Amino acid sequence: MSELLNIALPKGRLGEKSYAQFDKIGYSCPEVLENNRKLIFENDDLGVRYFWVKPSDVGKYVERGAADIGVVGKDILLEYRPDVYELFDLGMGKCRMVVAGFAGSNKITKRALRVATSFPNIARDYYSKQSREIDIIKLSGSVEIAPLLKMADVIVDIVETGTTLKENNLEALEDIVEISARLIANKVSFKFKNKKIDEIISKLKSGV
Q1: Does the 5-93+180-207 domain belong in CATH 3.40.190.10?
Q2: What is the mean pLDDT of residues 2-18?
Q3: Chain mean position to CA 106
Q4: Of 33, 51, 120, 186, which has the fewest beta carbons less than 10 angstroms from its beta carbon?
């Protein structure tokens, strides 16, 4: 039996779409789609092992070598900065990282701009390039509520359709970066399992 290629998939809709892409190019593991609580799935005949992990942890599993390759949002790469190779833009899960708030709320200059976000590193990088003084308020979710309660002036967050912003009388004020799903690889695995990884990249590029 050949050595298995370990593939980390993010739990949720993006992971399901990612698996569908691997399935489409010939790396199927039907057990992945079964209604069970298993987290690891193997197809010895094809030499692949899939496992589900929290989206923000995919980079860690790949960096540490538990996974040879993985699928992760560009936002996670920018925020957590795992030491991995970014191989290929899968073109899925497209959205934007933006500064959002009430109209004109990003124009405050008399004091540090209060920024609520789940992505403090992305926010700091963005504003440091503008030499803008900010006060980061780290939140784990539902950051849209922070401006409504006057806890923050603006938020830095992912926007897909903009519906949540509109329903809370907020709007996208500045675009920071386009986000999509990326295929990443462990640096050692990319060297020693290069043939199989290259084969997957080639098939994904022709199939996407």
Answers
A1: yes
A2: 93
A3: 26
A4: 33
Instruction: Specify whether the backbone of 169 is left (phi greater than 0), alpha (psi in -120 to 50) or beta.
Output: left
Instruction: Choose among 99, 97, 95: nearest CA to 132.
Output: 99
Multiple choice CATH, 95-178, 3.40.190.10, 3.30.300.20, 3.40.50.10490, 3.20.20.70: 3.40.190.10
Q: At what angle do helices 13-24 and 194-207 cross, to 10 degrees?
A: 100
Q: Per-residue pLDDT averaged across 145-162, rounded?
A: 96
Residue 1 has pLDDT above 50, yes or no: no
CB proximity list for 20: less than 8 A, separation 6 or greater: none
Q: In which residue are the tokens 């022709």 written?
A: 206
CB 175 within 8 A of CB 98: yes
Instruction: Compute the distance between CA of residue 173 and CA of residue 169 in angstroms, rounded to an integer.
Output: 12
Torsion angle, alpha carbons of 24, 27, 30, 34, to 10: -80
Over its C-alpha atoms, the chain yields an Rg (Å, rounded) of 19
Domain boundaries of the chain, sorted by first residue: 5-93+180-207, 95-178
CA-CA-CA-CA dihedral for 119, 123, 124, 126, to nearest 10: 140
pTM score over 0.85: yes
